[in-house]
Amino acid sequence: MQDTKNKIEAMLFTTGRFMDMEEISKLCSIGSVGIVKDALNGLINDYNTRDSSLEIIEENGKFKLNIKKTYNYLTTSLLTDSEFDAPTTKTLAIIAYKNPVLQSEIIDIRGNKAYDHIKLLKDNGFITSEKKGRTRLLKLTSKFFDYFDIIENELKSKFTDLEIKAVIDEVDENNKIASNDKKEILSVEEAEEDE
């Protein structure tokens, strides 16, 4: 049983994402989902009873090895050193807070540079984009929720706690766009739709 728990622990650590029991069973080459279930429950119990910075969390029948919220502050500096620069991160924060949101609204708030941010975020799989009238509708992907360890129905409250509203207000105040610029933005979006 300990060998099975070790395999599951190694798999959860390596993937760093939510997985259901069938996927864990397949990736660990364990033929029985029942054995995986028993070993996973034992592993969860092990983490709950030992003094560790890690825990196994479950969401909708999927499991992930995660840092306990008590120790999240240690990872803050790592997130600021992520692959996105500060302007792109702010754009992502606003998209996340307003999710789903029209691209035109993000451009109104963040300015024309946000087109580059949106492209980078789409290329990295954090958001999706679909046509919506004369603009596009931006939505967060499951990768966003996995990467930032946020459960979708808790998103708004977490961002309220982080005072993202204040960031949006500050960015909006600093990036006022004249009505002529808004017309230019709409024509750029129309050109994008024709591509």
Main sheet: strands, sense, barrel? 3 strands, antiparallel
- Which CATH class of the largest domain? Mainly Alpha
Q: Could you tell me the number of beta strands?
A: 6
Strands of the biggest beta sheet: in what spatial order?
1-3-2
Q: Helical region count?
A: 11
Q: Helix-strand pattern, N to C?
A: HEHHEEHHEHHEEHHHH
| SSE-based structural type | alpha+beta
**Strand percent estimate:** 5-15%
Features of the shown structure:
195 residues; Arc Repressor Mutant, subunit A; three-stranded antiparallel β-sheet; elongated
Describe the structure in your own words.
The protein is an alpha+beta fold. It folds into two domains: 2-68, Arc Repressor Mutant, subunit A (Orthogonal Bundle), CATH 1.10.10.10; 82-194, Orthogonal Bundle (Arc Repressor Mutant, subunit A). The chain is 58% helix and 14% strand. The protein contains eleven helices and six strands. The chain has helices spanning 2-15, 21-27, 33-49, 76-80, 86-98, 103-110, 114-123, 142-147, 155-161, 164-174, 179-194, and strands at residues 19-20, 54-59, 62-67, 101-102, 127-132, 135-140. The strands form two sheets. The chain has a three-stranded antiparallel beta sheet. The chain has a three-stranded antiparallel beta sheet with strand order 4-6-5. Helix 5 (86-98) crosses helix 9 (155-161). The N and C termini lie far apart (56 Å).
